[in-house]
Queue: 2 jobs
Job 1
Amino acid sequence: MPLDKFKNNIREYLQDYDGKLFFYWKARVGLYTILKAMGIKEGDEVILPAFTCVVVPNAILYLGATPIYVDVSSDTYNFDIPHIEKVITNRTKVIICQNTYGLSSDLEELTNLAKKHDLFTVEDCTHGFGGTYNGIPNGLSCDAAIYSTQWNKPFSTGIGGLLVTNNKELADKVTDLCSKLMPPTWKELLNLKLLFFVKRYLINNYTYWPLVNFYRWLSHNTNIVGSSTSEEITSLEIPEDYFKAFSDVQAKEGLRNISKLGDDIKKRKENALLYTKFLKEKKKNHVPEDLFSNHSFLKYPLLVKNREEFMKLATTARIALGEWFVSPLHPVEGDLSLWKFNSNDFPMAKYLSKHVVNLPTTPSNIDRVFHFLEKHSDFIIDSP
Ligand SMILES: Cc1ncc(COP(=O)(O)O)c(C=O)c1O
């Protein structure tokens, strides 16, 4: 069975993790499930970073609870942990922290704070599979964690995600909830297979941007399998087919891709070191060297002055820069009040989402990226 083999490979990467693993059509479904298993309901508050993907507050809001955002730090792109205590109330039940771009943050401080207030912790580790924090695999320091295996994540199953928890009581509740997952339709699975083919055989330096933009358009305007449906970015109604299971089609793709993960992570770390060295020498912003490594560096964040122009130049130069997160609740731009978010309350998240791009950490030729950065270094914001 592909799923059993896939599970074994994942356990190995998580240092022979022997707790429960649950798989979903998308990681957000795992987040929703664990919050439900934690008993989150109307009137409860869930703390999360003010620099995330909109599907994270969605999972909270679908349960009738209230997202309480905390501003983030420009070092870790996760929240400033000392700020959390100020927003804890007797309605707070969970803290969701986030491994952003594959950067670890001080989870020891966070889990101690959660223990002090008797709160659950969930690590949104959608970017962080494969790194460690204090020698512990990312995702295993909290009560539970989700990992995404969507296209651009540490290893891909096309779309997909998983949930881990070492807490037996929570795992039993999740097992019960998962019995209600609906299977993907044959159309969705066919769609996925077609997308695997396109990714494997048609994507190259020349076709990357046109195909990625076309895919984004299709996923917002048609029924093609995509990252987020238009409902998820315009309303708080839980989509009818949200609670969906993982499939063997995804497990097979995952098996193929996880076999390359070791080499990819090694390369990501080497390239991240090179980026840091280059940026530091030029006195430009860079990931601090003394953070809570060992980061997995899915991407390398960089702050630039005129992102729109910089992205245009990158597209022309055929450099695959990323744009997470173009908004504090990516990808929704503009008015975020539906998600109970006021950008003015979170100045750092607002600033970062205006200026951040991310550099590829496994490019086929990193020299081309350096050449591009050198040529356009005026765009790069100086070190603080
Ligand atoms: C920070 C963050 N959390 C959660 C998710 C959701 O992952 P998925 O698309 O697998 O549901 C994403 C998606 O990219 C993300 O960036």
Note: Residues 26-28, 52-53, 55-56, 98, 124, 126, 148, 150, 161, 227 surround pyridoxal-5'-phosphate (CB under 6 Å).
Job 2
Amino acid sequence: MQTRRVFLKTLLGLVAIIIPWSVLPTRFGEAMKTGLGHPSVKLLLPPPLTSKPNNVINEESLSLTAMDDIFALTSSEMQGRKAGSVGEAKAAEYLASQLSMLGLKPMGDQETGFTQAFTIPPVIETRVNGRLTFRPGENRNLRTPSVNLLGGLLGENTAEIILISAHYDHLGVFEGQLYPGANDNASGVGCVLDVMRRILREGKTPKRTIVLAFWSAEEMGFVGSAAFVQASSFPLHQIQAVLNVDTVGNGMIGDFALWSNGENTAVKAIYKAASECGASAVLTPTAGHNSDSVSFIAAGIPALTLMTHDWLDKNHTPEDTTALLKPEQIHLASEIIYRAVQILAF
Ligand SMILES: [Zn+2]
């Protein structure tokens, strides 16, 4: 009996060690392994990505659509893409593979290609009027690694950049419920990728360089875009305009809104583009809400966020699924951004 108990205890002990190590996401596994010797330095490493830049366009990837991206990003495997989670790492891997297949130039941290690493502070989930959101947690020094992704199409002028961006993170899983964030903001990510696919299919070299950026930890207070502005992988003064896309898949067709700080060059380009499409994009007060354009406006860069007028419908609830989306609306948002990019970069 005694021997059996010792044997069982040893077995349970081994299982207790093996299981956490085998189920730990690679990113944290790596961070823990490398972090043992140099905790403050190595924990800043981004997750290892298998998709490497290749500078060649994969023709098949040019026929993907925004809805393909949205279905991939809202799949149960991505677990609602909470910044710092395994689901976010999988979404980052998906986006790196897209940037790679589009043959774009890596514009992230030099060593890691498309990714720019940063860290996020602890947060606590909280419900406000039935919507899930994050508030600051304790131990603000305990930070978790996260990544933005950046890839560019070089223009004739590489010193001037038009940035098209969308945040790819969302809220994750809370109390057993998945928050897929189809509209917020898989729709924006799909829209941004669609614009670049169309530009590449047309094959014209832009006058200015066009950079795609996918921010993480927007839901935690624009942490990813703020980290980029603080330690950008190329000089900020090169950025002529930022077109940020957030939650563009629902509502009345052609009924869009803009957040910015006034009628800057980015806003004027969107006005013209929207009217060419028979759509409206109205500059609207943020009323306590915001998106990643705010990080660039704070740095004096002309920036805006495009969203649907009805963006708040089902926002930050488990009902923000692909069933909420209207492909026609997403297509129109892509058309508006595409036309604005024609004005700003060609
Ligand atoms: Zn959100």
Note: Residues 1-47 have pLDDT under 50 and may be disordered.
